[in-house]
Amino acid sequence: MKRICCIGAGYVGGPTMAVLAKHCPEYRIEVVDTNSERIAAWKTDDLPIYEPGLLDIVKQVRGRNLFFYEDVEGHIDEADIIFVSVNTPTKTFGHGAGRAADVQFCEQTARMIAKCSTKPKIIVEKSTVPVRTAEAMEAILQANDKGVTFEIISSPEFLAEGTAIRDLEEPNRVLIGGRPTESGRRAIQEVLDIFAHWVPKERILTVDLWSSELAKLTANAFLAQRVSSVNAISALCERTGANITEVASAVGMDDRIGRKFLRASVGFGGSCFQKDILNLAYLCEYHGLPEVAAYWQQVVELNEWQKKRFVRTMLKALFNTLAGKRVAMLGFAFKPGTSDTRCSPAITIAKLLIDEHAELSITDPKALENARKDLPDARSCTFTPDPYEATRGAHAIALVTGWPEYSELDFERVFQDMEKPAFIFDGCDLLDHEALVKIGFHVFRVGAPPIVPS
Ligand code: UDX
Ligand code: UDX
What we know:
This protein is of the alpha/beta class. The protein is 41% helix and 15% strand. It is built from 16 helices and 15 strands. It has a seven-stranded mixed β-sheet, with helices on both faces. Strands 3-2-1-4-5-6 form a six-stranded parallel β-sheet, with helices on both faces. Helix 10 (273-286) packs antiparallel against helix 11 and helix 11 crosses helix 12. The longest helix is centred in the middle third of the chain and has 32 residues, at 209-240. The chain is elongated and about 80 Å long. 46% of the residues are buried. Bound molecules: uridine-5'-diphosphate-xylopyranose (2 copies). One uridine-5'-diphosphate-xylopyranose (UDX) binds next to helix 8.
């Protein structure tokens, strides 16, 4: 039986290995992580991350060919292939702080693999990394004094949270980058054979190492850029009376542009977009390309502005004071379908509202536990899973995560229980605005002028 070890049991490592185990029963897959709480949770039915369909697959394969361990070092040497899925957050210290990716976990992992290995292995970079990270990993791995050889492969993961299982089961593409040497080609083939168990061959793309690393950063940058582009136009719509939904559908019908990812919002969130664009901009600057860096940096700046703009619109509509007013925040996750709040626009919006001395009542179907951690000092916040309780007595509603269940709320009931005039700020273009106005709400939309009862 071939053995795979995955270092890092997070949002990427966990679901990826579960799907791999399902399709490759002849591989024994061991997932290891230094976070023992996380590993313990993977062994229960209360998984450490919420992802539709994940538990079913884990239940099928756990104990069959998928195993979880907190002892990282002990599982390295037996493995033929090691996937590295450790996190690569934005650096918070020293040179490049706030922009460059912190690759210390990748380096530590490479050192640990070198130390623990007595036989050759393929190392697959799954984490999103700065272009040429594989070179550093390779240098560390090859510097071992046991003569063990390693082949590095870059195979970035493109799954999005909330749809991870579908994205893994039916990926648009699987990217495999490697060295153009004989042993490099063999390693590429070996990794390709794993994915070929369920991914059609024409969707598996083999490229060189650096293109593979850069393709992941570029894909995220392009996606985030679309959101910032549509959000930029949303501001112009609000001023001119155009409607961003209509503009976006007209633009998206051009099949060179495409319909997807053109939804105006309070801004993009998530653990990847901001981190990866900042990293891309930093890399461009490092390589002497300040104009390219500035181009990408602007995508993040526009995103920050969009969040602030949302709060400024609220402030202005609520007669320029939010002090002592109750604001119900519907949603806190960075998007629907996940409990993840990393870089959620809700965090920035909540903090700006707290700065205005608003009293927040926060609700979310999945993310309340994380929301509490994100706002540890917020004495003026309450948290409840019940949207009716959150909106009771509120002066305004800020809808910041587009959970579909919020469009099913009984807004007559919500309206009756709110202070008047009752304001609703739909940051996700989710609700039936005409119906809300008929009930009596003052409705503010991202990407269209406000509508108020006549
Ligand atoms: C992933 C990718 O790996 C990252 O590069 C990408 O940009 C974002 O998505 P993700 O799975 O979301 O990261 O990160 P996280 O959920 O934080 O999981 C990483 C795991 O690695 C954590 O559980 C952490 O405990 C573990 N880890 C980290 C180790 O086991 N060893 C380390 O040295 C560092
Ligand atoms: C993203 C990439 O899609 C994925 O390929 C990569 O591997 C990791 O980063 P993720 O962050 O999980 O995935 O979610 P995604 O669906 O891309 O959404 C990111 C953010 O953009 C969310 O906050 C979402 O609400 C926002 N968004 C998305 C919009 O504001 N408008 C849109 O039209 C689409």
